[in-house]
Amino acid sequence: MASIFSHAVAAIGIGACFYRPGTPKRVWVIGALCSVIPDLDVIGFRLGVHYGDFWGHRGFTHSLFFAALVASAVVLAGFRRPAPGLGRFPMSVYFFLASASHGLLDAMTDGGLGIAFFAPFDNDRYFLPWRPIHVSPIGAGRFFTHRGLEVLQSELLWIWLPATLLALSVWLTRRRAVPST
Ligand SMILES: [Zn+2]
Q1: From the CA of 62, how far away is ligand 1's center (Å)?
Q2: 114 CA distance to ligand 1 middle (Å)
Q3: Containing domain of residue 103, as a range?
Q4: Which of 2, 14, 53, 127 fits 114 for a cystine, CB–CB 3.0-4.6 Å?
Q5: What is the CA radius of gyration of the chain?
Q6: Which residues does residue 115 pair with via DSSP β-bridges, in sequence order?
Q7: What are phi and psi of 133, to 5 degrees?
């Protein structure tokens, strides 16, 4: 995995593209949560689930289908009545992208097994051809090592920086689009 903070940062960067004034803050918080939910599969390690299994790490919970399930469930459960600002359809697209971005970023890491993007229809694991992000150690303790620092550097460069640039460019574009009075 990339670390959970970096997944959340990616979700906030994506959220910037969906920003509408008046949207409740919980929408962005939930988006960030959607981006870290897939890694709940690490619980499986304690339950004897193998890495390469359907329910194993980077398996079904990292698939596009799971991202669609999460997005639909969140909107159905939490936003039965439309909230101000962002409509329910773009909101579900946002939650989907936030959750799906997790597998995409993991597929750009240089370790572990690939991602079961197409589960449950195809349980093969895939990486992207380009994998510049150092894989994050599982478990916070091991994060504070030299290796942890390298991981942090690669995540800052390949996740935090693009997410910030994305948010900044959306903000600048919108600012320019607002007619000055
Ligand atoms: Zn992951």
Answers
A1: 7
A2: 10
A3: 4-177
A4: 127
A5: 17
A6: 126
A7: -90, 125
Looking at residue 141, what is its pLDDT?
Answer: 60
Report whether 78 contacts 29 (CB < 8 A).
no
Which residue, among 104, 102, 96, has the nearest Cα to 41 in the 3D structure? 102
Residue 115 in 3-state DSSP? strand
Phi and psi at residue 126, to the nearest 5°: -130, 145
User: What confidence score (pLDDT) does residue 2 get?
Assistant: 66
CA atoms within 13 A on the CB side of 138: 15
Distance 1 CA to ligand 1 centre (A): 4
Query: Could you give the maximum distance between any two Cα atoms of the chain, in Å?
Result: 63
Long-range contacts: 137-145, Cβ < 8 Å, 24+? Answer: 138/1, 138/42, 138/45, 138/57, 143/3
Tokens of 93: 């697209």
- Cα of 142 vs centre of ligand 1, distance in Å, is 17
* Other Cβ atoms within 10 Å of 24 Cβ, number: 14
Total domains present in the chain: 1
Confidence (pLDDT) at 136: 83
| pLDDT-flagged residues of the chain (< 70) | 1-2, 138-144, 178-181
Structure tokens at 96: 């989907």
DSSP 159: I
